[in-house]
Amino acid sequence: MGTDENLISAFSGESQASIRYRVFAEIAREKGLKNLARVFEAFSYSEFVHAKNHMKNFRSDELDDPLSALDEAIRSETHEVEEIYPEFYEEAIAEKKKKAATSFRWAMETEKKACGNIQAAESSG
Ligand SMILES: [Fe+2]
Ligand SMILES: [Fe+2]
Q: Per-domain residue ranges for the chain?
C-alpha cells in the first residue's frame, strides 16, 4: 500500500474509533458514569480530528465547496437507500438476523426521509 491507501485506511479506522468512543460515552452517561463519559467524549473528539486531518488529504474539493459536498452526500445516501441497504436487509432476513435487519431498515428509512427533505429544501430555494 502507498500513502494514498494509507490515508483512506487511517481515515476509516479513526472514523470508526470516533463513533465507537461516542457510543461508549453515551452508554457510560446512561449508567451515571459522567467522568468516564467525558473521557470517552474526549477520545472520540480526538479521533474525529485525526480522521478530519486525514480526509483533508484526499477530499479537499468538497472541503472548499460545501454545496458540492451536499450533492455528493445526497448521491452517497441515495446509493445506500437504493442499492446497499435493500440488499443488506434481504440478506439479514434470509439469515434470520432480525436485529441486524431492523438496524438496516431504520437506517434506510431515515436516510430516505433525510434525502427527500434536503431535495425539497433545495427546490424551494
Ligand atoms: Fe487517532
Ligand atoms: Fe448513510
A: 1-58, 64-125
Cα 122 off chain centre by:
22
Lowest average pLDDT, out of 8-17, 21-30, 70-79, goes to 70-79
Question: In which residue are the cell numbers 494514498 written?
Answer: 4
Q: How many Å lie between the centroid of ligand 1 and the Cα of residue 85? A: 29
Report how far ligand 1's centroid is from the alpha carbon of 46 (Å).
Answer: 7
16 C-alpha to ligand 1 centroid (Å):
10
Give the distance between the most distant pair of CA atoms in the chain: 46
The verdict on pTM exceeding 0.90 is no
**Among 1.20.1260.10, 3.90.940.10, 3.30.1330.10, 3.30.300.130, what is the CATH number of 1-58?**
1.20.1260.10
Tell me, in angstroms, the distance from the centre of ligand 1 to residue 41's CA.
Answer: 13
